[in-house]
Amino acid sequence: MISVELKGLTxxxxxxxxxxxxxxxxxxxxxxxGEYLVVVGPSGGGKTTLLRLIAGLETPDIGEVSFxxxxxxxxxxxxxxxxxxxxAMVFQDSALYPHLTVRGNLELGLKIRRLDPSEMNRRVEExxxxxxxxxxxxxxxxxxxxxxxxxxxxxxxxIVRQPRLLLLDEPLSSLDAPSRTEFRQWLxxxxxxxAMTVIHVTHDQAEAMSLGQRIAVLNKGRLQxxxxxxxxxxxPANLFVAGFIxxxxxxxxxxxxxxxxxxxxxxxxxxxxxxxxxxxxxPMPAGWGLAHPGxxxxxSNVLLGFRPESAVRLKAVEAGKHDLSGRVDSIDYLGAEIxxxxxxxxxxxxxxxxxxxxxxxxxxxxxxxxxWSGVSWFDDKxxxxxxxxxxxxxxx
Length: 396
Ligand code: ATP
Description:
Structural class: alpha+beta
Number of strands: 20
Distance between the termini: 49 Å
CATH class of the largest domain: Alpha Beta
Radius of gyration: 26 Å
Number of domains: 2
Strand content: 25-35%
Oligomer: single chain
Bound molecules: adenosine-5'-triphosphate
Strand order of the largest sheet: 6-7-8-3-9-10
Order of helices and strands: EEEHEEHEHHHEHEHEEHHEEEEEEEEEE
Shape: elongated
CATH superfamily of the largest domain: P-loop containing nucleotide triphosphate hydrolases
């Protein structure tokens, strides 16, 4: 199986008014053999450029792409990339050959590789069928297919080639919601998946979270974070990732750590009517710059991040003096869940709760507690995460 190593990969283009910019900037990344890696990021972040560099369709200005098999580097020219590595790429707007039937489209790449006819028939029948492109599809012309059906045929066309490296550029874009769910399942069960390394790029964080064994978050040509979906969701490396990953972005509250006279650290939010004050009996995040952890009255600016579902709703009788309360400003009913915006002394926060269990109305006062075991702290100047670990945080 193939692994792919990207070292210091930089690609520059000239932008408006001829000014050069880096579509990819010093990217270091290793895609392990047999891995399903999803690269996710906003539009213009450099995802397609990355795939094109890996496929050898672009050359980097700095850095290199190398391919490895069983610990040995495969040396090859760009011209041999497709045949020696068996790389297949499904482009965002992959067009089928309009003058060929579905079967003709599936067979073309195999004919070019001079595959034995019986093996070709087997692959088109078995692998095409496993991709949902059965015999009844074969005589159809591309003009007779819907957008989703064309997408399916272009993916099947890549799969019948039995690539060792599959590059997918936004394979689910422009599909309706039920088709996306079906395709996601189909991508999880790809025929020959065990022998394939897959790099899939998308701007859709939900797609990335559901499909990626690891996900790499790319913004403005720079790698922001790479990790399992859980790592990236629970421990975002910076404010960008905290805002981009997740159906509702992480709540970010600007504030200060204050050390009381008895040495207890407090977090106080800055905006609004003096902010809100909650105790934070947590180990000081490394590198946050509080010079005298034992002193009192000293403070340091930080950003507190917590996911909307990390707010635990309390009944009025349960609420203690360290818990939070605020007025419900707006409610989004999402079916299984409710996302509500709550104003806490001028600080707007989002909470996310199961809709079957929780009822609320706009204007009502809600009480809740933040689950401190899941919070993130960020540097207020660089936006970088301060706590490398969240498991050691204790509940107040
Ligand atoms: P999308 O999700 O919209 O497809 P992307 O993350 O795939 O975006 P790229 O297509 O890689 O982004 O483009 C990254 C940046 O490089 C964009 O600003 C784009 O306009 C620019 N770019 C890409 N190809 C070229 C080119 N051939 N010449 C000039 N600029 C380019």
